[in-house]
From TrEMBL, chain A:
The lineage of its organism: Eukaryota, Metazoa, Chordata, Craniata, Vertebrata. The gene is ATP11A. Its cofactor is Mg(2+). This is Phospholipid-transporting ATPase. It comes from the Eukaryota. It comes from Ursus americanus (American black bear). Its main location: membrane.
From TrEMBL, chain B:
InterPro entries: CDC50/LEM3_fam (IPR005045). It comes from Ursus americanus (American black bear). One of its GO terms (biological process) is phospholipid translocation. Keywords: Glycoprotein, Membrane, Transmembrane, Transmembrane helix. This is Cell cycle control protein. GO terms for cellular component: endoplasmic reticulum; Golgi apparatus; plasma membrane. It is found in: Membrane.
Length: 1083, 332
């Protein structure tokens, strides 16, 4: 056996940056070769975990303290430990410890799961050939150059060059479902020179060198690499194959195509961080102001050292700057509650507990599969309410991935073989038969395909014919061919014989050339036939069949032409295409077939609802353009009125990309004024052209142009997408200048990268395995559940969390601002206004539960209304409730309330007696008064914001007020032996025993709530939002016993939005389930 | 609803109202009539309350005499800390034109108001530093900056019944503290007599007398149980504050309150305020159920009531015009 160079394995590309040389079976390089350069390749280990046992604690702590909030709390805690402050370090240390520990445990567990999955993958056994023998080893020991044997239904352990197969013709079949989602079988060919090596010994004797390019992620490159078997693909229908490892471990195409799972942050969390920084600035400036003022105030010695409080020697000698800095830190600590660690705890709890509502949802439970929704991360609940773009996979997500032959049209006559559905074979066929054209038509269908028949029914083929006597399985690279053949089999009583693989010409006594293809490709080549009677119908994949009779001479020349093209060494593809182009002309149209890829239940309804909610839906699929377009029609993403714009390779070949883009953008911009619906179709190749960075930069930015076009299209279809391209397009939209929130939904492993890339990734728990579901943030059983997920759950979560965030900042402004003001009245001495117990418990127990329960229970509108009226989703779009305006409003409300509490109590205490017996109140009573008013105001403010009062809300709101009162009574009612001071003794009780104190409490609560109530009422009346209108309507409705509401309270309520009756109709119509399929032809 | 498989049944979530977010709930409806009536009611309450409070505050009589300037020479004397043992008294005559009539049962006389910085002196009562030990190491009782700075002026009010003899107006020094402070919170160390109980301690640096000699007349009002001391230890919230000094003992001529006539305050001036630019004053005041003579509460109530009414009227106007327009719209 001489050594050969199998350079053609991965060849075909001229522009290699670098190449790798592989010696098959780790043989010595051939003597004549260049100097042996040792190339190091990684082993076949897959690593998806983030931590190891040793680096977990430092790395995880580092990761966690990179969050601004955690770092801030750590600093505050350390400062409290170091300097002498009026507040205890426990108050900030304990919650921080809690948060850090819980997060670390959660992340550790997740990483442990990843380790487990990695180990399972790395340890699964692989058959090696070593010294002519078969050896079993763990997958991770596989190295580049090893020869591997793979049996049927096994997945390839790494990227292999296909050496030989057990099949005589040196081919094998694989499915790449987990790579690109195509469940069809693909045929790969063994390297010509080695396909004869059938046994281990043969293989072992092979001396060969492989030159191939360095790993790169593009699945479809090198194109036509029929010798390359990719990791993750599964061997089908072939007993065993031999292959040599070329890319291993993290260098396999699968690994390169997967992105690491990065931490996703929701838009709310981002706003929260921004608010946090604002509050941090407020905090620092407060502390700074107080420190500066303190030293200004103390610049006069009688204030610095009054006679009753003289400094000690050591105090006098301390460095001024050091003292000032300590004071600054002390003020920081005093005011640190303005950014409460409890907010983060509450948010985490809300997200964690709230996510259970999704898993519990009965309506999102699929009874057929027995699966319910899964929540893999609870960090993104509210992001579900913010989605602006939905990227959906087609196969298995929108459709059932279940092709069915629906009808055909021959010479303008429509045949609907009901037989396909209910098994009555005879009736439709009776009148269908015996016409020449029909004969030809069915012959064409029977011949023009790439189907293989497998008699063994143990094997899981993509489709089994359900009611034929023989249990035969058709395997094909195109599922609609299977559907066609099955349909034909039932209509024509012909034998099904094992067809030979042919492209499409078939030669009988008379020589015919049959041609089957999409109407767009067939029609230009047709010269005769009822072209105008065939119309593509919504939802059906239409294929046209045409034929041409060839005279023998013609046939000879055609054959010669093809042969010449086939053996061409350069530009083979192009020459072949030219040859086909030459042959396939002047065809006669026979008819058309319609195959339906059945939509998932209520897919169209869901898409319609999403579009009504202002969400743009894009379909990203690895499928062919025609199939995908048909599905888009079926699920009403494209309507009949939609004008389609194509940005496909074919068009780009004709014109330059530049021209196409400009033309399209012109069309879109010109006509967008006419309310014309646009749909854009783009394919993977065109996309990669657009994404390619320009070298010269003079051509203008194509991406921007492309985005501009997309923005004006109501629907976009991207076909022929590699998994990474799906992610790329998601990323492109994600990073466009509006920074929209994206959601990706898919069911296959090919959707994983897109799911990981999008802000929210949703996996459909599908038939193709659970990879998507496992890598997603949320998983649903069916596409239709997306509707409730977004419109109901997402909306509610968003409302809840935004109120939670704003309210937390608000209540802590209320809490700390009086403390700040008090410094002006106590000589900036860091005197606390409230007792330590109040300082500690304010956020932990007095005001924590009502907001937590609010953020779990609140339904500002009923679930039913949310589902019925998707347009309500627009009300919260673009993070509407966390905009600056709203944030500033809440902050000012907090400041206003704090001013009311503080100065209300101040004027009450100043220069007058508050009791009827003349006894005086001290500073702790003052603080307690402010605190009491505050707790009541803040809780009642939440009560005013609550729309949905269940018994739990009542219990928690009134309960926490009661708890405050009881606690205060107890705290002040007993001399607590463990306390070193008794400053709160009887303070609260004395306060309540004074009449004016009650009056001032009532007054201050009223005054601080009044502006907010006024603002709310006025806004509702003058500028009601859609949600508020619905609330009023619902109120009317319930009062009138569910009658259709007539007038609404609020201006312009009648003018906008679809009327109720229309909505009902639509509901009924779409509730009807699957959209009725269209008819292929007009008779 | 059919549940086909056992497996499905087990995975099916519970159909409880809580889990399906379908708990029976009351939905808060902000209807026009509801909101308006709520506003009107609040307005009525606030206005009524405000008027009552203003009236009751108006009925209070109060006299305030600032005596820092009047007793200027004493103030000057106290500015020098070395003169701490020199006694200085001053007398302030004044005329009460109207009888300070008692409407309730009691009449109070409140003493001093002054500007006073509380800076760092009330930091933490539990922590006495730097006034916990004297220079020679003996513990200070009572310790801490607050106790050290105790108010130690003596104020005596006398009434000139006829032109010659001044009568000392009888005053109660009891009942000026919270009952709980006097009887629960503050306790003297138990011993046979107070001076032995406080043996081994020293007086705070600014005090003239040790703690067990605060009241020479009443042994129950001595040591930590001294009312003036307890009042002082209840630290005020603000630098300008007022503390209760004595209550009028309604006997003899003063059963009905203080009759109109000539009075004078005789003040033993001990507490220096000019050193930190403070001021002291003495206040005579009657009290009502709503406390002292502040119009603040009444005014704010009235203003709030007025604003609420104004708001509700304008809202009603807006609502009615919108309603009219809508009716027109529907009729068209």
């Amino acid at each position: 056996w001489g050594s050969r160079t199998l350079s053609r394995a991965c060849a075909g590309e001229e522009n290699w940056v670098d190449s790798r040389t592989i010696y098959v079976g780790h043989r010595e390089p051939p003597p004549g070769a260049e100097a042996y350069i040792l190339q190091r390749h990684p082993d076949n280990r897959i690593v998806s975990s983030k931590y190891t046992f040793w680096n977990f604690i430092p790395k995880n702590l580092f990761e966690q303290f990179r969050r601004i909030a955690n770092f801030y709390f750590l600093i505050i805690f350390l400062v409290q430990l170091i300097i002498d402050t009026p507040t205890s370090p426990v108050t900030s240390g304990l919650p921080l410890f809690f948060v850090i520990t819980v997060t670390a445990i959660k992340q550790g567990y997740e990483d442990w799961l990843r380790h487990k999955a990695d180990n399972a993958m790395n340890q699964c056994p692989v058959h090696f050939i070593q010294h002519g023998k078969l050896v079993r080893k763990q997958s991770r020991r596989l190295r580049v150059g090893d020869i591997v044997m793979v049996k049927e239904d096994e997945t390839f352990p790494c990227d292999l060059i296909f050496l030989s197969s057990s099949r005589a013709d040196g081919t094998c079949h694989v499915t790449t479902a987990s790579l690109d989602g195509e469940s069809s079988h693909k045929t790969h060919y063994a390297v010509q020179d080695t396909k004869g090596f059938h046994t281990e010994e043969d293989i072992d004797g092979l001396h060969a060198t492989i030159e191939c390019e360095q790993p790169q992620p593009d699945l479809y490159k090198p194109l036509g690499s029929e010798n390359l078997l990719l990791r993750g693909a599964t061997l089908k229908n072939t007993e065993k194959i031999f292959g040599v490892a070329v890319y291993t471990g993290m260098e396999t195409k699968m690994a390169l195509n997967y992105q690491s799972k990065s931490q996703k942050r929701s838009a709310v969390e981002k706003s929260m961080n921004v608010f946090l920084i604002v509050y941090l600035c407020i905090l620092v400036s407060k502390a700074l102001i107080n420190t500066v003022l303190k030293y200004v105030w103390q610049s006069e010695p009688f204030r610095d050292e009054p006679w009753y409080n003289q400094k000690t020697e050591s105090e006098r000698q301390r460095n001024l700057f050091l003292r000032a800095f300590t004071d600054f830190l002390a003020f920081m600590v005093l005011f640190n509650y303005i950014i409460p660690v409890s907010m983060y705890v509450t948010v985490e709890m809300q997200k964690f507990l709230g996510s259970y509502f999704i898993t519990w949802d009965e309506e999102m439970f699929d009874e057929d599969s027995g699966e319910g929704p899964l929540v893999n991360t609870s960090d993104l609940n509210e992001e579900l309410g913010q989605v602006e773009y939905v990227f959906t996979d087609k196969t298995g997500t929108l459709t059932e991935n279940n092709m069915e032959f629906k009808e055909c049209c021959i010479e303008g006559h429509v045949y609907v073989p009901h037989a396909v559905c209910n098994g009555q074979t005879q009736a439709p066929c009776a009148h269908m038969c015996m016409r020449e054209r029909e004969e030809l038509f069915f012959r064409a269908l029977c011949l023009c395909h790439t189907i293989q028949v497998k008699d063994d029914d143990d094997v899981d083929g993509p489709r089994k014919s359900p009611d034929s006597g023989k249990s035969c399985v058709y395997i094909s690279s195109s599922p609609d061919e299977v559907a066609l053949v099955e349909g034909v089999q039932r209509c024509v009583s012909g034998r099904v014989c094992p067809f030979k693989h042919l492209r499409f010409p078939l030669f009988t006594g008379e020589i015919y050339l049959f041609c089957k293809g999409a109407d767009s490709s067939i029609f230009p080549r047709v010269i005769e036939g009822k072209v105008d009677q065939i119309r593509a119908r919504e939802g059906l994949r239409t294929l046209c069949v045409a034929y041409k009779r060839l005279v023998p001479e013609e046939y000879e020349s055609v054959c010669a032409l093809l042969q010449a093209a086939k053996v061409a060494l350069q530009d083979r593809e192009r020459k072949l295409a030219e040859a086909y182009e030459h042959i396939e002309k002047d065809l006669i149209l026979l008819g058309a077939t319609a195959v339906e890829d059945r939509l998932q239940e209520k897919a169209a309804d869901t898409i319609e609802a999403l579009q009504k909610a202002g969400i743009k839906v894009w379909v990203l699929t690895g499928d062919k353009m025609e199939t995908a377009a048909a599905t888009c029609y079926a699920c009403r993403l494209f309507r009949r009125s939609t004008q389609l714009l194509e940005l496909t390779t074919k068009r780009i070949e004709e014109q330059s990309l530049h021209d196409v883009l400009f033309e399209l953008s012109k069309t879109v911009l010109r006509l967008s004024a006419d309310m014309q619906d646009y749909g854009l179709i783009i394919d993977g190749a065109a996309l990669s052209l657009i994404m390619k960075p320009r070298e010269d930069g003079s051509c203008g930015n194509y991406r921007e142009l492309f985005l501009e076009i997309c923005r004006n299209c109501s629907a976009v279809l991207c076909c022929r997408m590699a998994p990474l391209q799906k992610a790329q397009i998601v990323k492109l939209i994600k990073l466009s200048k509006e920074h929209p929130i994206t959601l990706a939904i898919g069911d296959g492993a090919n959707d994983v990268s897109m799911i990981l890339e999008a802000h929210v990734g949703i996996g459909v728990i599908g038939k193709e395995g659970r990879q998507a579901a496992r890598n997603s943030d949320y998983a649903v059983p069916k596409f239709k559940h997306l509707k409730k997920m977004l419109l109901v759950h997402g909306h509610l979560y968003y409302i809840r969390i935004s109120e939670l965030v704003q309210y937390f900042f608000y209540k802590n402004v209320c809490f700390i601002f009086p403390q700040f003001l008090y410094q002006f009245f106590c000589g900036f001495s860091q005197q606390t206004l409230y007792d330590t117990a109040y300082l500690t418990l304010y956020n932990i127990s007095f005001t924590s539960l009502p907001i937590l329960l609010y953020s779990l229970m609140e339904q500002h509108v009923s679930i039913d209304t949310l589902r019925r009226d998707p347009s309500l989703y627009r009300d919260i779009a673009k993070n509407a409730l966390l905009r600056w305006r709203v944030f500033v409003y809440w902050t000012f409300l907090g400041v206003f309330d704090a001013l009311v509490f503080f100065f209300g109590a101040y004027f009450m205490f100043e220069n007058t007696t508050v009791t009827s017996n003349g006894q005086i109140f001290g500073n702790w009573t003052f603080g307690t008064l402010v605190f009491t008013v505050m707790v009541f105001t803040v809780t009642l403010k939440l009560a005013l914001d609550t729309h949905y009062w269940t018994w739990i809300n009542h219990f928690v709101i009134w309960g926490s007020l009661l708890f405050y009162v009881v606690f205060s009574l107890l705290w002040g009612g007993i001399i607590w032996p463990f306390l070193s001071y008794q400053r709160m003794y009887y303070v609260f009780i004395q306060l309540l025993s004074s009449g004016p104190a009650w009056l001032v409490i009532v007054l201050l609560i009223t005054v601080s709530l009044l502006p907010d109530v006024l603002k709310k009422v006025v806004c509702r009346q003058l500028w009601p939002s859609a949600t508020e209108r619905v609330q009023v309507r619902a109120g009317r409705g319930s009062r009138a016993g569910g009658a259709v509401p007539r007038a609404q309270w609020g201006r312009g309520a009648l003018s906008r939005g679809p009327s109720r009756s229309r909505r009902c109709d639509r509901w009924k119509e779409s509730g009807g389930g699957v959209v009725s399929p269209g008819i292929t032809a007009e008779a | 609803m059919k549940r086909t498989s056992e497996d499905g049944q087990s995975k099916l979530p519970d159909n409880t109202a809580l889990k399906q977010q379908q708990l029976p709930a009351y939905r808060l409806q902000l209807s026009a009539t509801g909101v308006l009536s709520c506003f009107f009611a609040t307005g009525v309450f606030c206005l009524g309350m405000g008027i009552i409070l203003i009236l009751s505050a108006k009925s209070i009589k109060e006299i305030e005499i600032k005596y820092t300037k009047i007793c200027g020479n004493c103030a000057k004397l106290r500015e020098d800390a070395t003169n701490f043992d020199k006694e200085c008294t001053c007398s302030i005559p004044f005329y009460l034109s109207e009888t300070m009539q008692v409407k309730g049962e009691r009449e109070e006389i409140q003493a001093y108001t002054f500007l006073f910085t509380v800076s760092s002196c009330i930091q933490d009562v539990g922590n006495c530093a730097p006034f916990s030990k004297s220079h020679d190491g003996t513990p200070i009782a009572p310790c801490g900056a607050i106790a050290n700075s105790i108010f130690n002026d003596t104020i005596i009010l006398s009434y000139k019944l006829n032109s010659s003899i001044p009568i000392k107006v009888p005053m109660l020094r009891s009942g000026i503290t919270w009952w709980t402070d006097k009887y629960v919170k503050f306790q003297n160390p138990s011993s046979i007599n107070l001076s032995s109980a406080f043996a081994g301690t020293t007086k705070p640096p600014c005090w003239a007398k040790p703690v067990y000699e605060l009241d020479g007349e009443d042994p129950g009002n001595n040591g930590f149980l001294n009312d003036d001391f307890i009042v002082w230890m209840r630290t005020a919230a603000f630098p300008t504050f007022k503390k209760l000094y004595r209550r009028l003992n309604r006997i003899q001529y003063f059963i009905e309150g203080l009759p109109a006539g000539n009075y004078s305050f005789n003040i033993t001036y001990n507490f220096p305020v000019t050193r930190f630019k403070g001021e002291k004053s003495v206040v005579l005041s009657t009290l009502t159920w709503s406390g002292g003579s502040s119009l603040f509460l009444g005014l704010v109530y009235t203003v709030t009531g007025a604003v609420t009414w104004l708001a509700s009227f304008s809202m009603m106007a807006v609502h009615l015009t919108l309603k009219d327009r809508k009716v027109l719209f529907i009729q068209q």
